[in-house]
Specification:
By secondary structure, the chain is of the alpha+beta class. About 40% of the residues lie in helices and about 10% in strands. It comes from Oldenlandia corymbosa var. corymbosa.
Length: about 160
């Protein structure tokens, strides 16, 4: 999976947010067309008024306010067109054996737990941990997240 990046349509669809209850793509995202309107989007960011509802619903208000001020558009074109070549002297088997962990955020409204399960099944990590938090555990559950990271690191 690492060799091909996220170019496989199934991988894109598994992790694609479903905001059909909110509206069309333009209702949810501020979309940037850095290469012109006739080219695919180059950047996307959730609209400011949706950030708390979708990303920070369990965070303290002061943290979500700070996050809203700091959030910047993501390089969607770079992410969706990423390609990873093979490295000289490194086998695909060696890459697949790299220890990976997954932290499921059980109240994630962007990549829902069911979607996370599908992605986990497609590329199984060494361990799967769960946090009962929103998409932003570094704000909504920082102590639980840091403890989990220490625990995960100690098992590698």
């Amino acid at each position: 999976m690492l060799w091909v990046g996220v170019r496989a349509m199934a991988v894109k669809l598994d992790g694609a947010p479903d905001f059909s209850d909110i509206g069309e793509l333009g209702d949810v995202y501020d979309i940037g067309f850095g290469l012109g309107i006739h080219e695919p989007p180059t950047s996307m960011a959730l609209k400011k008024h949706l950030l708390r509802r979708l990303n920070y619903q369990l965070c303290p208000h002061e943290d979500s306010t700070l996050a809203e001020m700091l959030v910047r558009p993501g390089p969607i074109r770079a992410i969706t067109s990423a390609r990873f070549g093979k490295w000289e002297g490194v086998s695909e088997d060696a890459v697949e054996k790299l220890p990976r962990i997954c932290i499921k955020t059980m109240q994630d409204r962007v990549v829902k737990p069911e979607q996370q399960d599908v992605m986990i099944k497609k590329w199984p990590p060494l361990d799967v941990y769960q946090l009962d938090c929103d998409r932003s555990p570094f704000f909504s559950a920082p102590f639980l997240l840091s403890g989990l990271l220490v625990k995960a690191f100690s098992t590698l």
